[in-house]
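Re: beginner question about structure tokens

> Can someone show what the tokenized structure looks like for a real chain? I only ever see the sequence side.

Sure, here's an example I had lying around. Input first:
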Amino acid sequence: MLSGPKFLEVSSRIFKVLAWVSVAVGIISALVIFIGGGTPDAPRSTGFVGLLLGVVYFFLFTVASEVIALLLDMRSKLDKGSNA
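And the corresponding structure tokens:
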């Protein structure tokens, strides 16, 4: 089982991967809706919703990754300061 900094490092990487996957899925879903055409139940403008959600999730996961990286950086600096 991962503990401490290792878990946070892995979590940061996972959030970065999730960020890029979410933007890719958003773009692909928007393209499928735009190219495939709309139906009365789902018009072409629905593609913009998929694209917007992909971008929003991209930013959320990127921020989460950066916050975890910041916490790891703070921990390493505190560890160095306590050893001095």
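Each token stands for a local structural state, so reading them left to right follows the chain. Residues 77 and 83 are 10 Å apart (CA to CA).
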